[in-house]
Amino acid sequence: MARAGVASRRKSETLISTGHVQVNGTVIRELGTKVTADDAIQVDGVAIQQEQFVYYLLYKPRSVVSTAHDDKGRRTVVDLLDDIDERIYPVGRLDYDTSGLLLMTNDGELANQLMHPKFKVDKTYVAKVKGVPTNDALEKLRHGLVVDGHKTSPAKSKLISVDHRKNTAIVQLTIHEGHNHQVKNMLTAVGFPVEKLRRDSYGPLTLDGLTSGDYRELKSVELEALRESISNKKGFRR
């Protein structure tokens, strides 16, 4: 019901328990009742139809918010996919001034699994930082460090290039956590504040072939690889 846009998950549970929902002509009140695509579902006598799941890979530009709506009137990632009929939303978020890979879908179960910490989905970022990180700084990132009162998990860090004239460097960082501003905070904590940030990959997904603002539907092999990346973790259900 939530996927069909009838109501939120919690409101849908209330509708079921109070007898507003029928499956194949029979009122059901038991939460968690299993249905299939062949079952006829009605809410107060009105038939509902579940949306087909869709999956899009977006190269989010900077100065775009990773939400479906914005109270300040700023452009959102949903605005960029305005020709998509389904009601889709981003899996996780990228900061307003951060660009890069963002998965857009209406598959709430997969989205929740990808964002849950126990599945440890790797996300790789490329950052332009002020200064040139030392080996000691990169080692601190690799072993984890305390940021905002908690210790980060070990990250993969790599110095990509250095511009000595401008005193900047390009650093690659791979993490599986998703705390607010985590990459920026980690690099700032070791003394190298971020000037620009881009997410280059999310699990097996990459930005290959896309430029900023582009999007495309996920290929079946990519979706399978994405599911496979979490299928061996405890609690996964397909």
Automatic annotation (TrEMBL):
SUPFAM superfamilies membership? Alpha-L RNA-binding motif, Pseudouridine synthase
Query: Which GO terms fall under molecular function for this chain's record?
Result: RNA binding; rRNA pseudouridine synthase activity
InterPro entries on file: PsdUridine_s_RsuA/RluB/E/F_cat (IPR042092), PsdUridine_synth_cat_dom_sf (IPR020103), PsdUridine_synth_RsuA/RluA (IPR006145), PsdUridine_synth_RsuA/RluB/E/F (IPR000748), PsdUridine_synth_RsuA/RluB_CS (IPR018496), RsuA_PseudoU_synthase (IPR050343), S4_RNA-bd (IPR002942), S4_RNA-bd_sf (IPR036986)
Positions the record marks as coiled coil are none
GO process annotations (BP):
enzyme-directed rRNA pseudouridine synthesis
Instruction: Give all residue intervals belonging to the RNA-binding S4 domain.
Output: 1-52
Residues of the signal sequence? none
Entry keywords, A to Z: Isomerase, RNA-binding
Matches recorded under Gene3D superfamilies: Alpha-L RNA-binding motif, Pseudouridine synthase I, catalytic domain, N-terminal subdomain, RNA-binding S4 domain
Is Oxidoreductase included in the keywords of this UniProt record?
no
Q: Which Pfam families match?
A: PseudoU_synth_2, S4
Q: Report the superkingdom from the record.
A: Bacteria
* A GO-annotated cellular component: cytosol
Q: What is its EC number?
A: 5.4.99.-
Catalytic class of the enzyme: isomerase
- NCBIfam families cross-referenced by the UniProt entry: pseudouridine synthase
- PANTHER family per UniProt: PSEUDOURIDINE SYNTHASE FAMILY PROTEIN-RELATED, RNA-BINDING S4 DOMAIN-CONTAINING PROTEIN
Say which family it is in.
Belongs to the pseudouridine synthase RsuA family.
- The protein's name: Pseudouridine synthase
